[in-house]
Design a protein that fits this description.
The complex is a heterodimer of chains A (about 280) and B (about 775). Chain A is mainly beta and about 280 residues long. Chain A has three helices and 17 strands. In chain A, β7 and β8 form a beta hairpin. The longest helix of chain A is centred in the first third of the chain and has 14 residues. Chain A is globular. The two termini of chain A are about 30 Å apart. Chain B has three domains: about 100 residues, Immunoglobulin-like, CATH 2.60.40; about 80 residues, no CATH class; about 500 residues, TonB-dependent receptor, beta-barrel domain (Maltoporin, Chain A), CATH 2.40.170.20. Chain B starts with a helix and ends with a strand. In chain B, the strands form ten sheets. Chain B has a 22-stranded antiparallel beta barrel. In chain B, strands 9-16-17-12-13 form a five-stranded mixed sheet. Chain B is about 5% helix and about 60% strand. In chain B, β42 and β43 form a beta hairpin. Classes of the chains: A mainly beta (about 280), B mainly beta (about 775). Chains A and B meet through α1, β1, α2, β14 and α3 of A and β42, β43, β47 and β48 of B. β1 of chain A pairs antiparallel with β48 of chain B.
C-alpha cells in the first residue's frame, strides 16, 4: 500500500524533469564473502530445496559463487532430516518430505570451512481461496499507459481469519511460465491491513496486453503461502532496497534483515500452501 | 532551581537605581515616507551619548535621556538619514517618515552616517535580508525564493538541487523555527521542495538567527527564521504583480483610512496545469498540478497607543491524476496582534496565532480506494513586553502558551479490502516564560542575557506504548497505556541565552554567544527531500525533548568606511536526545512510530567566513563554511558515529549584483559544496532471482561535489519619481516595471540529487551506479510591474 504511494510520488517527480545517468563510482573495500541462504519448505510432499551461495563484490557481475560440500540438516523437533547436494550449492530433502502445520523447523548448515549457521521457522496454517477470476480491464486512467492497451487482471476471492498473525504471499504461474520468478514479483500482504476482511476481488497479478500469451486457453495456477511477519518484512525490505532505493523519498540505504544466525544473509521459511487454478478458454 | 531564577531576577533588576536627574523619553514610530511601511531595525543615534536604540519589528522605538539638548539621527539602509536637534524638557513623541535614497544622494549618505551595525550590535550569527536583495538573486524558473537565498549564507546548507529544505549549523530541517508574522509555518515548500511558500510581493524582510537566539524565541534547536509580511501601503492604492514562466502574482494594497489603516492582499498561482487542459489526450487534460499562495494583512492604528494587525497566509499544493489519484497539502496561518503602549517606555504586544498544516491524499477508484489525512494544528497565545529602561538597558519579558493538536493520520478505505486505520489524536501544551536584558556595560562591552523557561505537557486522551527494546533492530510492544485526559507527562527546561560584544574600535569587535535550546516536537522524516507526507510528533514518555548547547565566537571588522563587512565565526554545538530512525523504518501510518526511533547524541562544529559589500553599484557577498556534523546513536551503524546526511565539509557561495546603469542590473551567483554523505554497497548477493546489495557503514562515502553558476539580468523602466515633473503640473503616472531574464545552471553541471546502486534494466546480473539529477540549464524570464 505504502509502496504504491511512493511510486506515485516518484512518478510525479520524474515527470518534473529528472534524468538518470549511469556513472562511475568507485567502491573501495570488498565484502568478505558471506554465506547466503535461500531455503523454503512447505506442507506439500516434494523435494524441498535450500540454495547456498556467497556474497561477491558489488561490481562483480558474475553469478553468485555457490557453496558446495556443506552439511545441511533440517530438524522438526523430533527427527533430523539430511539434505543432499544435487547440484553445486543446491541441497534437497527427500522427495517425500512434507512439513506439518504448527511445527517449528530448524535448518542447520555446517560449511566446509567448518562454520555453523542455523535458522528456524514455524509452519503456520494458510487460509483458502474461494475462487479466482480473470478479466480484461482498461488500465487505470492517468497511469501513463496507452489507451489501447488492456490488462489481464487476476483477482482473489477468499476469507481471511480474524486472528492476527496471518501474512501471505502468492506464487503464480500462467501456462507454465512463472509470473513470480523473482522475489520482487511476489505479491505479499501483512495482516495489519487485511485482518478479518474477505479478499473480495483483490488483484494479485496484472499482465499487460502485449505480454498475454497467444494461446487458445489461459491456465493460471495460484499458490497461497502462509509466511511469518519476519518474512513479510524481509520482502518489504528487498522491495525498498532494490526497486525504490536512491529516490529522494527513500530513507537511507540499509541492509536487508535475515533470519540466519552467525552473520549469514538470506532467509529460511516454512509455509503452508493452498493451491487453486483457473482456465480461461479462447481469451481473445 | 527556583532560587536561581529569583537571584537572576534580582540581578537583572539591580541596575534600576534612582537617579536624581530628571529624565524624559523620546518615542515614536518610524515609517517609509512613500508607502507607510514600518522600518524594522532603523537606528536612532544620539550624538551626545554616543549611543542609541533601534526600532522594533513594528517600527517603534523609545529612548529615555536626562533633560537636555540632543542631536538625534535616524538612519536606515537605503534611506536618507534624518537629523534633528531636540530640546528635551518633557516626554516627546517623534514619529518620522524616511525617504528612500535616490542614486544622487547615495554617494552623499556614505559620508553622512556610518553603518557599522554588524560590528556594534550585540547579536551575532544573525543575518537580515531585505526582499529587494533577494529579488535580484537569480532563481530557478525565475521564481524569487527566499529560502534558497538564505541557503547562500554561511552556516546554512541546502538539502540538494532545487530543495528549499535548509540546514543550519548541523541541525535538521525540522529544527528551524519558521515564523511568518509570528505564525509557525510547518511546511515551507511547494512541489516537493522546488519552490518556497513565501510570495515575494507580500514579504518585507527576514531575520535569520543561527545562534544567540533571543530568549523570547524557543522550541527549535537550530535556527529562527523570522519573516515579516508587509503592512500594506497607508498612503495610496498600489498594485503590483508579475508574470513568470510557471506562476503569476498579483498584489493589491492601499489605505483603508489614510495613515491610519491599510490592507494588503497578495496572491500567486502556478499555471502549468492550465496548459495540460489544452491537450486532447484525456490522460493528460484530466490532470491537475498547481500550487497557490494567498497572503493577506490588515493593520489599524487605533490611536497613538494602540495598533491592531491581522494577517493570514493560505497556501496549498494540489495534484490530481484524472479521477484516480489525488493529493493536496498546505499551510494556513492566522495572526492577530495588538500593540499597546502602557507608557512611552513600556511597549507590549499581545498575539494570538492559529497555524494549521495538513495533507490528504486519496485513491478514488477500484477496490484499493482510500482517503488519507493528517494534520497538525497550533493555537498560540502570547504576551511580549519591552521596557526601554534607559539607553543602556532594554528589558524584555513575556509569557506564552501553545496548544498543539496532532492528527498523525487517518486512513479510510472507501470500498476496499483495507481496514480503516485511524491513529488517535495527540494533544500537548508548550508553555514558556522569558526575561532578558540588553545592557551596555561600558562603551566597549555590551551584553544581552536572558533566560527562557519552557514547560511541555502531554495532555488529553492518548494511547501510548511501552516498548521492549531488547532487540535493537526492531522493538516490540510490551504494553499499551491509555490516558483518559489530564496531564500525563511533562518536561521542564531552563534555557539560558547570552551574547557579549567587545568593541575593539569603531570598525571591529569580538562577540561571543551561548545558548541552550529545547525542541519538543519533530518531524518523522528520514529523507532529504521535503516530502509533504511528513508527520510531526511530540515529545512523550518515550521521546525525550531534544536539547542543544551552542557556543560561538566571532570577529567582526568593517573596511573602507564600512563599505566592506567581514566576519569570522566559530561555533560548536552539542546536541542531546538526537533522533534517527532504525533501518527500514515505517514512518507513515504507523501507530508504533515511537518504536522506530533511536536516540543518541550529535555534535557539529564549524568556521564561517563572510565578506560582504552592501554599498555602491556592486554589491554581494562571498561566504565560506567549513563544518562537520556527526551523530552517535547506539543502535545505528553498530554504535559508530556517522555523518549526518546534510553534513557538508566545504560550502562556498559567491553572490554578486552589479547595477550597470539605472536601467540594467546584472546578478550572478556561484555555489560549491562537498557532496552529500551517502551509504554505498560493498558487496552483493542473490536471493530468489534478485541481486541485493550489502552495505557498509552509514554515510561513509560522498556524492560528487555540487556546484552551479546562475545569472540574471533585470531591465528596469524609469522610476516615476526620477522623471522630471510634468509641465502641466499633474502627477506622473506611477507605473514602473521590469523584465527579468535568468539562466539557472549556466555551465550545465549535472549535479546528482541522489545516487542509486541497482541492477541494469536490460541485464539484471549487472549492477551499476546511477545518478539522478534534475536540472540542466534552465533559462526563464518574468515580467514584474507596479503602479
Amino acid at each position: 500500500m505504502k509502496i504504491s504511494i511512493y511510486t506515485l510520488l516518484l512518478i510525479i517527480l520524474l515527470c518534473f524533469c529528472s534524468c538518470e545517468q549511469t556513472i562511475d563510482f568507485d567502491l573501495n573495500n570488498q565484502e568478505n564473502a558471506r554465506l547466503v541462504v535461500e531455503g523454503q519448505i512447505t506442507d506439500q510432499a516434494k523435494a524441498h530445496t535450500v540454495k547456498l551461495t556467497r556474497t561477491s563484490s558489488y561490481y562483480e557481475n558474475e553469478p553468485a559463487p555457490t557453496e558446495t560440500g556443506a552439511n545441511v540438516f533440517l530438524f522438526d523437533g523430533t527427527v533430523t532430516h539430511t539434505l543432499t547436494e544435487t547440484d553445486p550449492g543446491i541441497y534437497q530433502t527427500a522427495s517425500n518430505f512434507k512439513g506439518e502445520i504448527g511445527k517449528t523447523y530448524t535448518l542447520s548448515i555446517n560449511t566446509v570451512n567448518n562454520k555453523n549457521y542455523s535458522a528456524t521457522s514455524t509452519l503456520a496454517a494458510v487460509s483458502t481461496i474461494d475462487s479466482l477470476t480473470v478479466s480484461f480491464e482498461e488500465p487505470e486512467k492517468g497511469g501513463g499507459k496507452d489507451d489501447e492497451s488492456y490488462v489481464l487482471n487476476l483477482r482473489h476471492y477468499g476469507p481471511e481469519p480474524a486472528t492476527l498473525g496471518n501474512n501471505y504471499i502468492w506464487l503464480i504461474s500462467l501456462n507454465d511460465s512463472n509470473l513470480t520468478e523473482t522475489v520482487t514479483d511476489i505479491p505479499f500482504i501483512s495482516d495489519e491491513y487485511s485482518n478479518g476482511n474477505y479478499f473480495n476481488g483483490y488483484t494479485i497479478n496484472e499482465v499487460f496486453e502485449e505480454d498475454i500469451p497467444l494461446t487458445d486457453s489461459l491456465f493460471y495456477e495460484v499458490e497461497l503461502h502462509s509466511i511469518s511477519r519476519k518474512y513479510h518484512d524481509f520482502l518489504l525490505a528487498i522491495l525498498i532496497e532494490t526497486e525504490f532505493n536512491g529516490s529522494i523519498f527513500s530513507g537511507p540505504p540499509a541492509n536487508i534483515p535475515s533470519n540466519i544466525s552467525n552473520g549469514a544473509l538470506g532467509f529460511f521459511r516454512a509455509s503452508a500452501v493452498y493451491t487453486k487454478s483457473i482456465v480461461i478458454e479462447n481469451p481473445l | 532551581m527556583n532560587k536561581k531564577i529569583i537571584l537572576f531576577l534580582i540581578y537583572c533588576l539591580s541596575f534600576i537605581s534612582i537617579y536624581s536627574q530628571e529624565k524624559f523619553t523620546i518615542s515614536g514610530n518610524l515609517k517609509d515616507k512613500a508607502d507607510g511601511e514600518d522600518l524594522i531595525g532603523a537606528a536612532i543615534y544620539v550624538t551626545e551619548i554616543k549611543g542609541g536604540t533601534v526600532a522594533n519589528v513594528y517600527g517603534f522605538y523609545s529612548i529615555t535621556l536626562p533633560k537636555g539638548t540632543y542631536t538625534v539621527t535616524i538612519s536606515y539602509v537605503g534611506y536618507s538619514p534624518v537629523t534633528q536637534r531636540i530640546n528635551l524638557n518633557k516626554d516627546l513623541k517623534l514619529n518620522l517618515e524616511l525617504e528612500t535614497t535616490s542614486q544622487a544622494l547615495e554617494e552623499f549618505s556614505v559620508t553622512a552616517k556610518k553603518e557599522e551595525k554588524n560590528v556594534t550590535e550585540t547579536s551575532m550569527s544573525t543575518n537580515n535580508l531585505q526582499m529587494e536583495t533577494i529579488k535580484k538573486i537569480p532563481a530557478l524558473f525565475g521564481e524569487v525564493d527566499l529560502l534558497k537565498t538564505i541557503q547562500l549564507l554561511p552556516g546554512v546548507q541546502s538539502g540538494g538541487e532545487g530543495t528549499t529544505g535548509f540546514f543550519v549549523r548541523g541541525g535538521g530541517s525540522d529544527q528551524n523555527l519558521i515564523l511568518l508574522d509570528e505564525a509557525t509555518v510547518y511546511s515551507p515548500s511547494h512541489l516537493f521542495g522546488f519552490f518556497s511558500v513565501f510570495n515575494q510581493d507580500a514579504i518585507k524582510d527576514l531575520d535569520l538567527y543561527k545562534g544567540g537566539i533571543p530568549a523570547r524565541y524557543g522550541g527549535r534547536l537550530a535556527s529562527l527564521l523570522d519573516i515579516h509580511m508587509k503592512e500594506g501601503n497607508t498612503k495610496r492604492f498600489s498594485t503590483s504583480g508579475g508574470i513568470g514562466l510557471i506562476s503569476s502574482r498579483l498584489t493589491v494594497e492601499g489605505p483603508i483610512k489614510k495613515d491610519k489603516s491599510s490592507f494588503i492582499v497578495s496572491a500567486r498561482r502556478t499555471y502549468a496545469d492550465l496548459f495540460l487542459k489544452l491537450s486532447s489526450d484525456t490522460n493528460i487534460n484530466n490532470n491537475q498540478l498547481y500550487f497557490y499562495d494567498l497572503n493577506t494583512k490588515v493593520n489599524y492604528q487605533i490611536n497613538e497607543n494602540n495598533r491592531l494587525f491581522l494577517s493570514g497566509y493560505f497556501g496549498r499544493d494540489v495534484f490530481n491524476f484524472g479521477s484516480l489519484f489525488g493529493m493536496n497539502w498546505g499551510n494556513a496561518t492566522g495572526t492577530l496582534r495588538w500593540n499597546h503602549l502602557f507608557t512611552n517606555k513600556l511597549f507590549s504586544n499581545f498575539t494570538y496565532v492559529y497555524s494549521n498544516f495538513d495533507y490528504n491524499l486519496g485513491m478514488n477508484e477500484g477496490v484499493a480506494a482510500f482517503d488519507w489525512n493528517s494534520k497538525i494544528v497550533d493555537q498560540n497565545l502570547k504576551a511580549d513586553f519591552t521596557y526601554y529602561l534607559n539607553p543602556k538597558n532594554t528589558v524584555r519579558f513575556g509569557l506564552g502558551t501553545i496548544y498543539h493538536t496532532f492528527k498523525p493520520g487517518s486512513f479510510v478505505s472507501t470500498n476496499g479490502i483495507f481496514n480503516d486505520f485511524i491513529l488517535p489524536n495527540k494533544y500537548a501544551y508548550e508553555h514558556s516564560a522569558y526575561l532578558s536584558n540588553q545592557q551596555e556595560l561600558t562603551s566597549r562591552i555590551s551584553v544581552h542575557y536572558g533566560l527562557r523557561a519552557s514547560l511541555f505537557q502531554n495532555v488529553g486522551t492518548d494511547t501510548s506504548y511501552v516498548f521492549d527494546t531488547s532487540n535493537p533492530e526492531q522493538y516490540s510492544v510490551n504494553d499499551t497505556i491509555t490516558q483518559s485526559g489530564g496531564i500525563h507527562n511533562s518536561y521542564f527546561n531552563l534555557e539560558p541565552r547570552l551574547n557579549i560584544r567587545y568593541l575593539i574600535n569603531e570598525h571591529s569587535s569580538i562577540k561571543a554567544t551561548y545558548n541552550r535550546m529545547t525542541q519538543y516536537l519533530q518531524k518523522a522524516d528520514n529523507t532529504i527531500a521535503s516530502s509533504p507526507l511528513s508527520i510531526w510528533f511530540p515529545s512523550s514518555a518515550n521521546v525525550k525533548p531534544q536539547l542543544v548547547d551552542q557556543v560561538a565566537l566571532g570577529y567582526f571588522r568593517n573596511l573602507k568606511n564600512n563599505t566592506y563587512e567581514t566576519s569570522v565565526e566559530l561555533y560548536y554545538k552539542k546536541m542531546q536526545n538526537t533522533i534517527d530512525f532504525r533501518d527500514h523504518a515505517e514512518l507513515l501510518l504507523n501507530r508504533y512510530l515511537e518504536g522506530e526511533l533511536r536516540t543518541g547524541s550529535a555534535y557539529s562544529y564549524g568556521a564561517e567566513f563572510l565578506l560582504k559589500k552592501d554599498k555602491g553599484k556592486f554589491t554581494g557577498w562571498i561566504g565560506y563554511t567549513y563544518s562537520q556534523t556527526k551523530r552517535t546513536i547506539p543502535e545505528i551503524n553498530n554504535g559508530k558515529s556517522y555523518f549526518a546526511p546534510y553534513d557538508r565539509t566545504h560550502d562556498i557561495s559567491v553572490v554578486g549584483s552589479y547595477d550597470i546603469s539605472k536601467k540594467f542590473n546584472l546578478s550572478a551567483n556561484w555555489v560549491f559544496n562537498t557532496g552529500q554523505a551517502i551509504t554505498v554497497p560493498t558487496g552483493r548477493y542473490e536471493y530468489y532471482g534478485k541481486i541485493i546489495p550489502v552495505y557498509s557503514d552509514r554515510n561513509s562515502e560522498r556524492m560528487p561535489a555540487f556546484h552551479r553558476f546562475d545569472l540574471s539580468l533585470t531591465l528596469y523602466t524609469k522610476k516615476w519619481n526620477e522623471k522630471p515633473p510634468r509641465t502641466d503640473g499633474k502627477e506622473r503616472n506611477k507605473f514602473e516595471s521590469n523584465w527579468n531574464f535568468s539562466i539557472y545552471n549556466v555551465y550545465m553541471r549535472k549535479n546528482a540529487s541522489s545516487i542509486r546502486f541497482a541492477a541494469n534494466e536490460d541485464d539484471p546480473t549487472k549492477t551499476e551506479a546511477k545518478m539522478i539529477y534534475f536540472f540542466s540549464i534552465i533559462p526563464s524570464f518574468s515580467y514584474n510591474f507596479k503602479f
